[in-house]
Specification:
The complex is a heterodimer of chains A (313) and B (295). By secondary structure, chain A is an all-alpha fold. Chain A is built from 14 helices and two strands. Chain A has a two-stranded antiparallel ribbon. In chain A, α7 crosses α8. Chain B contains 13 helices and no strands. Chain B is elongated.
């Protein structure tokens, strides 16, 4: 167990370092000049030289790189020019609504997806299974922001069940303001949950212990919904951890649709104002969140399932 | 499937691909793939012929017909300045399809080549390439593209640079994992027995076989990319006015969602139609095999 965890953590550290390298080189190799972006047209030579020095852009690229790495490792994620504050601090203030949206969206995708997958696996290629497949094909093809807009149109503007913009904290506030965006996010994720869980259930249903449960005379719903589902828990966990990146990307767009003051709308603002250090910090933290989530999922999986942790031996 | 077990027992992969091809293009495909190909053909034709079939100009203003609901003269209604939403959608589709094809099929050969070389040689080079692809895939796709756009500047150019920088990594990962199996196949072993150069073995003998699964995957990648483009355009980071993308038309319609629902709703349906078409084609071609391998 310990050796598996150590190997897995080491891999995560390598990828985290890769994220640092990537965010550094995006700024320096992609065509475009950070100084002109900061100054936004006010370009007299003295000013350019001053900003260039302030951002350490006048040093050799290797020095800039080590400076960026050592600063970031000490917890300095750069400075936002437009908000005139450390990027890390600004992001910290905005992370709550986004995390709530992602968590709520995941929960909804499980509440919708797990029963649908069970129904689909009970009668593969039956009419319900086919109907579910058509539904998930449709949601797979929908732009997330458009799905959000449609939900806002139906449940917000026509039926007036939920507000279509804004955010308030607390359980009640989250239920009121985040239900529609979380439903959009959850429905998009449901496609993946249903498809993966259905095929995982069908695979588990071939195994002998399922045959044994059936021969004990248990109802098919009980066999699938209890005995098979428990063994498919792992694949569900894996789906969720693989899709953390998708969920983070989804919040960027949905926060814009529903005007939620999270890190996603912060990112869009930062790009519009060309606040590149803030963008850099946000990209780095989004990548780190994905790496850490998949690390956590793998370790939980190894903890619960001996086959995983012994596989590499 | 284990490569060693199949040594000498299974016809080489080239044979399978060749037989499928001989079986006769579209006729050999499952129904859903044909349906998907049909939908895509109609959409690509509509985009290609947009200047001919659009009843109005892309930015033709008409203040006597503001917020008209869909009718025979305006199939998708008009927006706040009397522009015909159907015509705008056709032109936007034309631009979006052009960008989708570019950002899907430019990174594809690059990724396949990188993956093939990494899988063929293995060792330190493979380890480095694998960590780079791990890193690229770890970023939420749209966040990384937005980061690139923040430097290049919003617009089609930013999208055309931003998406390929990230998108090659998935193809590299796919091609690498296939190459690990392929390099043990008898015909690949034969290339070294015959003394072919490694360059010839990779480019002439391995890559054509690796292309097949990447091309199948690319149909699903097109869905991912058109959704990404729509999102970027919705956020105002895509084509800048007066040019419209499907996402920016939808964004225009958001403020009048209740009074003029058609402006935001109908162009969105076009995106859904494209996604369904490409999704059906991809699922039909892959028989669901590819999806698992990518994860």
């Amino acid at each position: 167990m310990l050796s598996y965890v150590i190997r897995r953590v080491a891999l995560a550290v390598v990828v985290l370092f890769g994220l640092l390298v990537a965010t550094f080189f995006i700024i320096h190799l992609v065509p475009g000049d950070p100084v002109r972006i900061v100054l936004a047209g006010r370009a007299n030579p003295a000013e350019i030289a001053r900003v260039r020095h302030q951002l350490a852009l006048d040093r050799p690229i290797w020095d800039q790189f080590t400076l960026y790495i050592s600063r970031t490792l000490q917890g300095h994620f750069g400075t936002s020019f437009t908000l005139d504050a450390p990027a890390g601090q600004i992001i910290g203030q905005r992370v709550g609504p986004s995390a709530a949206l992602i968590g709520y969206g995941m929960l909804l995708s499980l509440l919708i997806g797990v029963p649908l997958a069970i129904v689909a696996a009970l009668r593969p290629n039956g009419w319900l299974d086919n109907a579910i497949r058509v539904g998930t094909t449709l949601t797979f093809a929908m732009p997330l922001f458009w799905l959000g807009l449609m939900l806002a149109l139906i449940f917000g503007l026509e039926l007036r069940w939920f507000p279509v913009a804004g955010y308030s904290g607390g359980i009640g506030g989250i239920l009121r303001t985040l239900t529609l965006p979380a439903l959009a996010l959850g429905l998009a994720l449901t496609t993946v949950v249903v498809r993966t869980l259905r095929s995982s259930l069908l695979e588990v249903l071939q195994s002998e212990y399922i045959e044994a449960a059936r021969s004990r005379g248990l109802s098919e719903l009980r066999v699938v919904g209890k005995h098979a589902l428990r063994n498919s828990f792992m694949s569900t966990l894996t789906i969720l951890s693989i899709n953390i990146g998708f969920l983070i990307g989804g919040t960027v767009v949905l926060e814009q649709v529903f005007q939620i003051p999270g890190v996603g709308s912060l990112l869009v603002d930062a790009v519009e104002k060309r606040d590149y250090q803030l963008v850099q910090a946000l990209a780095l933290l989004a990548g780190a969140a994905v790496v850490l989530a998949s690390l956590a999922a793998d370790i939980i999986q190894a903890f619960l399932d001996p086959r995983v942790r012994l596989a590499g031996r | 499937m284990s490569a060693v077990d199949t040594l000498g027992q299974q016809p080489p992969l080239v044979g399978t691909a060749e037989r499928r091809r001989r079986a006769g293009g579209l006729r050999g495909l499952p129904l859903q793939a044909k349906l998907g190909a049909g939908i895509l053909a109609v959409l690509f034709l509509a985009g290609l012929l947009a200047p001919l079939i659009a009843p109005y100009g892309q930015n033709e203003l008409d203040f006597t017909h503001v917020y008209n609901s869909p009718s025979l003269s305006h199939l998708m209604g008009t927006d706040g300045t009397g522009r015909d939403v159907f015509s705008r959608t056709l032109y936007a589709l034309r631009l979006d399809l052009l960008i989708v094809v570019l950002v899907t099929y430019v990174p594809l050969p690059i990724g396949v080549l990188v993956g093939a070389v990494a899988g063929y040689f293995g060792g330190a080079f493979d380890a480095i390439i694998s960590r780079i692809t791990d890193t690229m895939i770890a970023f939420p796709f749209i966040v990384l593209v937005i980061a690139v756009i923040s430097i290049v500047g919003p617009g089609v150019k930013g999208v055309l640079i931003g998406v390929p920088i990230v998108a090659w990594a998935l193809y590299a990962r796919l091609a690498r994992s296939e190459m690990l199996v392929l390099r043990e196949q008898p015909f690949m072993l034969a290339t070294s027995a015959l003394g072919y150069s490694r360059r010839r073995a990779i480019l002439r003998h391995a890559v054509p076989n690796l292309m097949r699964s990447s091309l199948i995957y690319s149909t699903l990648d097109m869905v991912v990319n058109i959704l990404l483009l729509a999102s970027l355009a919705y956020l105002g980071l895509g084509a800048q006015p007066p040019n419209a993308e499907l996402g920016s038309i939808i964004a225009d319609g958001q403020s009048t969602l209740l009074t003029a629902w058609w402006v935001a709703t109908l162009p969105g349906l076009v995106v859904v139609l494209f996604g369904v078409g490409a999704g059906l084609l991809g699922d039909g071609l892959s028989d669901g095999q590819l999806r698992g391998r990518l994860q």
